[in-house]
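Priority: low. Protein: acetate--CoA ligase. Input follows.
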Amino acid sequence: MKIASLPAVSGHYNLTDYNKEKLDFKWDRVEKEFSWYHNGRVNMAYEAIDRHAESDKAFKTALFYEDPTRQESYSFLEMKKWTNRAANVFTTHSDLKKGDRLFIFMPRTPELYFSLFGALKKGIIVGPLFEAFMEVAVFDRLHDSGATAIVTTPELLDRIPLHRLPLVKKVFVVGQQIDATDRIIDFNKQLASASDDFDIEWLGLEDGLVLHYTSGSTGKPKGVLHVQNAMIQQYQTAKWVLDLREDDVYWCTADPGWVTGTAYGVFAPLLHGVSVVIMGGRFSPQNWYGTLEKYKISVWYSAPTAFRMLMGAGNHLVANYDLGALRHVLSVGEPLNPEVVKWGNDILHHRIHDTWWMTETGAQMICNYPALAIKPGSMGKAIPGIVATIVDDRGVEVPPYTMGNLAIKSGWPAMMKEIWNNKARFDSYFLAGEWYVSGDSAYMDDEGYFWFQGRIDDVIMTAGERVGPFEVESKLLEHPAVLEAGVIGKPDEIRGEIIKAFISLKEGVVATAELEADIKKFVKEGLAAHAAPREIEFKDKLPKTRSGKIMRRVLKSWELNLPTGDLSSMED
Ligand code: PRX
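Result:
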């Protein structure tokens, strides 16, 4: 398919200077920034926190934290102290050691970040879990990873089926006082009396960092393991793409349960010693504009759904806030519509810079970095040091303007190290030996800009969150009234996609509005609110292959009123 490109709009940098820097760029140039270069050893927590605490940035604010009940800030020195204390709590109250998995399952609070970096200081691999997950989702992730400890809050404790997780030896509970046992530890109480000093565990670049679970179109969510080496690309993209500078105040709105919230919520900016704002609590346009104003945020990284919600709240609102500190605005996670770029330009007075990457890539890959002219609707170009292209299904590169699989030459610094416990799944990402195949379809224009077209598989991106239809379907099948279920993403103006379920009911069950509401609630309470179908359509029968697999492709074409395509594998 051949597609015409839109006109480009100029960026705000001197292209010539910028290009000089990136000419012949090699990743090993970045190593110089880290202790690795001097002694062959490294630790993300040291590079992001202690290194600055031991420099003239010691008293600079590392973290501004705010939610409706708390408003706090921590300097790099204080962050060093609190993360040392957290590391000491883990040492005193568990056998956790390098390479063990500890999960953090809680809303954003300063303690989340203390325990994240505290665990990293011990060389523990951290699995962040989104706070909206319910029992099944929590169980699957803890079980698959063989986690031995978890940090959580009293409110979320009920959702962790500890009786089915014998490997989980220690549960660190943050917040109000709790009845401690040998297994349940009062984190805040122990933190208050822990020592401020800790001997960091020095690691190699290939040692583990974070384990983010993410969804594909089939099977349970898979654990994407990232290693310390990711810091090289996270550091460099913070410079080139986020354009972070010494005095910036930076806000990334993503939750650390998702990869953006770790890689760019804290790691990338703190590697540069830049002050980070963390907002707890719920989204509201007033809160968000208020945060931008109050903290004089200069670099802001968010997502299309959030921008569309702000657009929806009306442009008059913006006039009440002084957003004068803002210098650079970026987006990730879903297609950024040209209308949103235009809104950014007209209302925020900044062009929103789109960035493309995935949990598996560990860092930004294809971006509208400031030196590039933005073509609204395009994700930008591969950043220096990254080779991206479009390949056909055999792994052969196709000419510009031809749609195909968005692929990356494997071996970039932040590339996932493995899929936890699943070598076959890891291998299945690679075509013709060298190409990592993203699962996205796109085309490249003749200037090397990439244009997103859609997912090739059935993965749903709803409000920027990646949901696997299989997980939702499995949960639906546990409902007593449901016989069969097929789940698709339905296009939605605000959320990008919403989850729609097609359901056939067991014999004798009548489809009613109450039943529909009950099924939605069942998924919401069993799996996660963001994974619950917003729409349900009852059908007598669902389209299936002869081997009994539900054909989501046909459901999608029903929904979109499109031709159903090849039905030769469908049962009679
Ligand atoms: O489909 C692409 C979409 O998000 C997927 C990756 O999701 P996840 O692993 O949760 O990571 C999200 C943020 C790093 C991709 O396969 N996606 C990500 N960025 C964009 C995007 N789709 C369109 N435009 C983007 N800029």
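Residues 214, 258-260, 332-335, 354-359, 379, 438-440, 452, 455, 461, 466 surround adenosine-5'-monophosphate-propyl ester (CB under 6 Å). Residues 1-18 have pLDDT under 50 and may be disordered.
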